[in-house]
Amino acid sequence: MTSPFTVIISYDQMVLLIMALFMFVGAMRGFSREVVTSVGLVVLLALLAQPALAGPVVDYLSRLVRLVLAFFQSHFSVDPDVLLKYYQNAKVPFSSENPYAVLICALVAFVLLSYGTRGHEKEASALGRLLGGVFGLLNGFLVITLFKEYVIQYLLQRSPTVAAAGRPAGFSVAVQGVPTHGGISGGDSRLLLGVVVALMVIVLARNLMKHTGNAKKGSA
Questions:
Q1: Partners of 174 in the β-ladder
Q2: Is 161 exposed, middle or buried (0-12, 13-18, 19+ CB in 10 A)?
Q3: Rounded (5°) CA angle 199-203-33
Q4: Domain residues for 70?
Q5: Residue 52 domain flag
Q6: What is the pTM assigned to this prediction?
Q7: How confident is the model over 74-118, as pLDDT tens digits?
Q8: C-alpha span between 118 and 120 (Å, rounded)
Q9: Closest by alpha carbon to 52, among 111, 107, 125, 103?
Q10: Does a structural domain hold residue 1?
């Protein structure tokens, strides 16, 4: 039997590679589109740090999904008693106490919509592309942080041990140096505050430079 072939990847190197990719894409997209993506990612990061904020929405979504499942499982019955029976037996993989599955789906959908659609705004300036690259770098970091937090808070807690399987795979990938503690929910709220402050400072600086440039053109 041949021994399995394992490719070992450093977590830090993977993070740098992903952030560099986001920076390149951000420079191509420009400042205006990247800053909208940054705001959305910060909101998702805040919800991941404080899942109770998303509790009411997730609870409503859970009830709605269970009702739809009950309607289909009852073969489109409109009898309240029949629907209630199937509704009580319906199971969904998320709830207000465990909203991480919804949050990660929202993250994937948001990233795909943000980076998979093309805007109709005018061509970005040199400053816009530079700031777009900076925000793209920040967005890459936020996406990695969100995925890491999801794995730590949801997957590892639900499956703390891995049972031995059959024959090992012939090819596998191992990531070394992955943090085993939550950076946001573990008490490091300064990271989130720093991201918000950085967003505000860069946006204000850009608006100030734009206003100064317009004032010079008006006085010329």
A1: 8
A2: exposed
A3: 85
A4: 11-116+124-171+182-215
A5: yes
A6: 0.66
A7: 888 888 888 888 888 888 877 777 787 788 888 888 888 888 776
A8: 7
A9: 103
A10: no
